[in-house]
Amino acid sequence: MTIFQLIAVPLAALLFLRSGMRFLRGDGHRWVAALSMALWLAAGITIAQPDLTNTIARFFGIGRGADLVSYLIALSFLASVVYFYHKYRKLNSDVTEIIRSLAIQDAITGTPETRGDAVHAVPPTGTLANDRDPTA
Amino acid sequence: MTDDPPAERRARVFVVVPAYNEANTIRAVIDRLRSMYEHIVVIDDGSTDEIEQALDGAQIMLLRHRINRGQGAALQTGITFALLRGADVIVTFDSDGQHDPEDIEAMTAPILNGDCDVTLGSRFLGHTHNMPLGRRLVLKAGIVFTRLVSRIRVTDVHNGIRAFSREAAESLRISMDRMAHASEILDQIAQHRWRYREVPVTIRYSAQTLAKGQSSWNALRIAAQVLMERFKP
Questions:
Q1: Chain B contacts of A82, Cβ < 8 Å?
Q2: Is the ipTM of this complex over 0.95?
Q3: Is B80 on the interface with A (CB under 8 A)?
Q4: pTM
C-alpha cells in the first residue's frame, strides 16, 4: 500500500461512517446521506484497488479508469451546480419573504422611516401608517 | 356585473406598480394612473434614488422593500398587499412609462365580466413605438421558447401589463424574484388552467426604457433559469 492509500482509505472510511451516522439519525435529507455514503465507499474502494476503475471502465467501453473517473467528476460537478442553485434559490426566496413581510408590516403598522409625509396613501378600508393628508 | 358604472368598476381595480430607481419617470406614470384609478400600489424595490420625493403627495399606497429583491419579488409583494386591501382585479403595470394607462380598461373588462381569469397585454396584437429590431427578434424567440417549455400559446412574452382576477391572484405564487417571473406567470397560467386572454396594448420605447429594460443577453439567463427550475431535486 502506498502512503497516499494509507492516508486516504481510512479517511474515506471515517467519512463513510460519518455519513452512515447521519443516515441513521435522519439528519437533513436521508437521500443526501445515502448519496454521500455511496460516494465515500466508492472513493475508498477505488483508492485501495486502483485497477478496479480500469475494469469498470472497460466494462462500459470507456477504456481507461482515469477517463471514467473524470467523466464521473464532470457529472458530479453538474449535479452539484443544480443542487447548489436550488439551495441558493431557496435562500433568496427566504430573504424575499422576510423583506416582503417587513414591507407589508411597515405599510400597515408603520416605522419611523415609513411614516414620513412624502406619500399619501388612500386605502379602501382602514388606515395605513403612511396615510397622510398632504394638505394637512 | 357588466352594468356597473365605469367608476364603480374602476374602484374594484388595484394597479400594482413595481419601481426601482425610477424617480425620473414614475411621477408622470402615477399621475396618469391616479387620474383614472383610485387604488395604486407602488412597491419601491429598494431604490437608491429620490423616488419617495418624486411621489410626494401622490395619493397612492407605497410599500418599500428595504433591499432590492427584483421585479418579480416586488410584484408578488404588491399583489399580496392588494389582496389584503380587498382588490377584485389586480393589474401589473411598469413604472418606466412604456405602458399606456388607457389599455387597463380593456385588460380588466373581460375579468370584471367573468369571461376569463387572467389577461395578458400583447404588443404584437397592439402597437409598438420605436421598438428596436433586436428586441423584436428576442421576444419572438421567447414566444417560441414559451410554447415549447411552458406549453402555452401567446403572441407576446415578458410584457409587464397583465391583469388577474382575485381568485387567480390568490393562487399565484411568484418565486422567481428577478425577470424570469414573467415566464413563471405563464407557467402558472398553464398549470392552473386559468382562462386567459390576450389584449392588444401599446408599448412605447424610449432611450430611457431601453436603458433600464432588460438587455437582450439577459434573455439567455432567463431561459437558463426557467430550465433550471425544471430540474428541482
A1: 228, 231, 233
A2: no
A3: yes
A4: 0.80
